[in-house]
Design a protein that fits this description.
By secondary structure, the protein is of the alpha+beta class. Helix content is 41%, strand content 12%. The chain has helices spanning 43-66, 128-142, 144-154, 156-159, 174-186, 211-217, 227-240, 248-269, 284-287, 305-315, 325-339, and strands at 77-88, 107-117, 167-173, 274-275, 281-282, 316-322. The longest helix has 24 residues, at 43-66. Mean pLDDT is 76; it is low at 1-26, 191-207 and 271-279.
Length: 341
């Protein structure tokens, strides 16, 4: 389960608060213009403050829930936690280069807390979904420096060499992440949902099947990566070995073959983004949970820092912290593994 971690990195203090004062006048009687320099943004110090604020917001939320004097008529503050994921931004619709393969698909890197007044949703000009989308967009935009920094701390191999302007972000409620992502990928609880025989290993995509083995099962040529060819081969093989199309006497022996075909298709489509028939990017991470998972928002179009800051400081309270680095690296490793031919 995601846990917040304490940032202990050294503060980047070099050059902070340094400004040069002009020494008199130049020849010709023109005065030097004063050079004003602002200190660089101290991300590590900001994260320490965020951790403290996060704890305070959650403590206030717990206290409010335990308060017997419910405020039935006034504004009610609602506290919600979210998981923020990051990935490398594709260039012109193509997949990221092999240098950034660890971030080729979404990787959870941070945890966000938002406290907002329920009365904000009472605005007749906005529905609940649009209000929440604008709120989450503002929060992610405002904390994008901290989020990127947390990604570099948890998974330096994936994010440290990736320029910050080449990173995009997604977000979803922590309950959705736990149900559709964490329990599926980390705990493996949802691996067999929909299996007719309840096999524990046949539908798993993480039991070591290589892409070469997957292509062999689907009767594909070595090195094939075209999504249309893979999908066509999968449909052909799954139709041939579907349990409903084979005799009762052969069903027991051939049913395993059907699940191997399904696993092969999932192996070739997991981890790394591919294109669908319309040319848009598909994501294995975003596909987890299927239609039941409708709370994931991404990629987010970031706002300017001024606009995001105005919304964050006026409309709601928020704080961001890191998550367990082992959780982050589990998704980085999966992306790297899925990219290997």
């Amino acid at each position: 389960m995601p846990t917040t971690t304490t940032t202990t990195t050294t503060t980047l203090a070099a050059g902070m608060g340094m400004a040069t004062k002009p020494n008199g006048k130049k020849k010709g009687g023109k005065k030097d213009k004063k050079k004003s320099t602002s200190p660089p943004y101290d991300v590590s110090a900001a994260l320490i403050k965020n951790e403290k604020l996060y704890e305070e917001l959650m403590a206030e939320s717990t206290k409010a829930l335990m308060n017997d004097d419910d405020n039935l008529y006034g504004d009610i503050d609602l506290t919600t936690e979210y998981i923020i994921a990051a990935r490398a931004k594709p260039d012109n619709g193509s997949s990221p280069s092999s240098t950034f393969v660890g971030a080729s698909d979404w990787v959870p890197v941070a945890q966000l807390c938002i406290v907002r007044s329920i009365s904000q949703d009472d605005n007749k000009d906005d529905d609940h979904e649009s209000v929440m989308e604008s709120t989450l967009t503002a929060a992610v935009s405002y904390f994008c420096r901290e989020i990127n920094y947390l990604g570099c701390l948890s998974a330096p191999s994936a994010f440290k060499s990736l320029p910050r302007n080449n990173v995009e972000y997604g977000i979803e409620p922590i309950e959705s992440f736990m149900k559709h992502v964490y329990e599926d990928v980390i705990e493996g609880k949802n691996k067999n949902s929909g299996s007719s025989n309840g096999s524990s290993s046949s539908s798993s995509t993480s039991n070591g099947m290589s892409k070469a083995q997957a292509r062999e099962i689907l009767e594909l040529d070595a090195g094939v990566t075209d999504a249309a060819l893979i999908k066509s081969a999968y449909k052909k093989q799954s139709f041939k070995y579907h349990p409903d199309r084979i005799s009762e006497e052969d069903r027991e022996t051939l049913s395993e073959r059907f699940y191997e075909i399904k696993q092969a298709y999932e192996t070739l489509n997991s981890g790394v983004r591919s294109k669908d028939a319309n040319g848009s990017q598909q994501s294995w991470y975003a596909s987890l949970g299927g239609r039941d998972r409708n709370g994931f928002l991404g990629p987010i179009s970031l706002l300017s820092m001024d606009k995001a800051g105005a919304l964050c400081n006026k409309a709601f309270k928020s704080a961001v912290v890191g998550i367990d680095p082992d959780l982050t690296m589990a998704f980085v490793a999966r992306n790297q593994s899925a990219a290997r031919l």
